[in-house]
Amino acid sequence: MSDRDLALYRKMQLIRRAEEKIQERYSENEMKTPVHLCIGQEAVVVGVLDALSPEDQVLGTYRSHGIYLARTNDPRSFFAEIYGRSSAHARGRAGSMHLASPAHGFLGTSAVVGTTIPLALGAAFANQRRKNGRTAAAIFGDGAIDEGVFWESLNYACLARLPVLFVCEDNGLAIHSPAEERHGYDSIEAIVERFRCHVARSDSTDPAVLSDLTREAISKQRETGQPAFLHFRCYRYVEHVGIAEDFDAGYRTRASFEEWKKRDPIQLVRRRLLEGGVERKTVDQIDQEIERELESAIALAKKAPFPPASDLEKDVFA
Amino acid sequence: MTRTLSFRDALNEAIVQEMDRDPNVFVFGLDVPDHKRIFGSTKGLVERFGKERCFGTPLSEEAMTGMALGAAISGLRPIHVHIRVDFLLLAMNQLLNMVSNFRYLSGGTLEVPLVIRAIIGRGWGQGAQHSKSLQSVFAHVPGLKVVMPTTPNDAKGLLISAIRDDNPVVFLEHRWLYDVSGEVTCGEDGIPLSKTNVLRRGKDATVVATSWMNVEALKAAEILSREGVEVEVVDPRTIAPLDDGPIIESCARTGHCVVADYDWSFCGFGAELAARIMEKCWGKLRSPVSRVGFAHVPCPTTRCLESEFYPNAVTIIRVIEKKLGLKEMDLSGESFYTWESRFRGPF
Prior knowledge:
The structure holds two protein chains of two kinds. By secondary structure, chain A is of the alpha/beta class. Chain A has eleven helices and eight strands. Chain A has a six-stranded parallel β-sheet with strand order 2-1-3-4-8-7, with helices on both faces. Chain A has a two-stranded antiparallel sheet with strand order 5-6. In chain A, strand 7 (about 200), helix 8 and strand 8 (about 230-235) form a beta-alpha-beta unit. By secondary structure, chain B is of the alpha/beta class. Chain B has two domains: about 5-185, 3-Layer(aba) Sandwich (Rossmann fold), CATH 3.40.50.970; about 195-325, Rossmann fold, CATH 3.40.50. Chain B is about 35% helix and about 20% strand. In chain B, the strands form three sheets. A seven-stranded mixed β-sheet of chain B has the order 3-2-4-5-7-6-12, sandwiched between helices. The radius of gyration of chain B is 20 Å and the shape is globular. Chains A and B meet through helix 5 and helix 6 of A and helix 3, helix 5 and helix 6 of B.
């Protein structure tokens, strides 16, 4: 149990600290890319990806630093991309909002809500044809379920029995609009359950719980051929885009944050590790390693060259 | 081997050949395997390749386009079919936000071998939402190839190349061309994209035409030829990326150019052509580049207004006469294409 928790802790802490580094340095104005931080939401991505195998494909959104780091474990490439350097996977073209690493099965992201969901269907269609047993997961926010393409994709995946995992990472907000101001219904699960689809829901901030639910969904999917929809609630600690808190903006309260903060995913797993007998220095050592890795990644990124002007017109076509 | 084929059979042959050759190719879209088979262009596919490689879809254009992208980056080669280009507008988010830039944003690591076939068309009261062509809209966005075949030979040869291309290709097929037959000479390797083709040689004026307008331009050239005016008809065939070499060469030689684009002229592909010809043939033009296109209104349904909406061979003849300072010919004895003679609808 503690080994699994240590791995989950490490991944979440890597994501949290990487984003806190962005917060610390953003005002230097060297990361010239809008950032959508997932601080507070780490358990969902880390939990879901823990249940997937490395060969399974993942699609994300513009808030996908977490997927990138959890999947690649490569903060060097991550910061190179954020700093717009040629050493990054996409050579600075992607920035924060279009992160991907197809070599790691992280096929793509998009800055337009809901837009990557059907790509998971395409990956799943290819998996189905190849009978390779892989799952394709689309991870999206709750704003995406307001989009027609979510319903189109859900319908088709259920019709064609595609091995797709729909993961709604629900932080309760589409930018600044809460669900109750956007939904003409009370329960998304109640609706999705009417499709030929498995449904699970959780408010947990424990990545192990979310990982188990995801595993269960995948095994049901494999047994029945029906896709699965996972509705995992979470809380975004900072503003929609940018690095700051915005509890004074009026669309949510600091009290709601304080409630969720009591169940902060990283603190939750850390406490469980220590209570389960893992030595504090073991956990601290993980923190220190992450610290060194991130500082080194940032230093390397800042030293890396920018792409040359000749890069501009490359790769429009194959 | 040279054979005479209809445009629809030429398309069908290209798809059959490529599906035979490459098991990763599949065809899908609304009503692709129904009894009408996309005006016959997908006939025999489901019988030959099965439902796994030829299937219909719900009316979910955005999701299906996204699925095609997902399949393409996973190593398959989808052909997604829209029976009207107007329906493709429902997928513009995928097309312009995702499909077109996916490779670029991947740092050049991903390939997107995706063909989007869309039928364009006119006539017999198709009205405002079944009559667009939109090539300039697609061509405006970097990362999409846009192909508009005119002849059956090009239909086959260019579709083969589009399927083999590792980039997204929007393939626009004019409904009226489906009934046109012609010699098909292209071999198994198809005809390369981005190669402009001269359909008729001439020394007095150049008409650069797209899709159906080539049929009108050839008719205009035939009639003018009887008056001793030799018109060169140039078909770009691929709108983007454009091979403008033969266009520039022709216009510089004849000194007179009419751009007959099958679309609205305003902000259209014809404007792009006119600009390039002006930039590259400056000093060699003997008259300003003229544009022929749709009236700048939504397409009306009633026949009398629809006839006004579309330019035709007569429009081209009159423009050329004016450029060359000729008297207007008497065209009363000429027989022009009418859809009463060839196309009775309803679709």
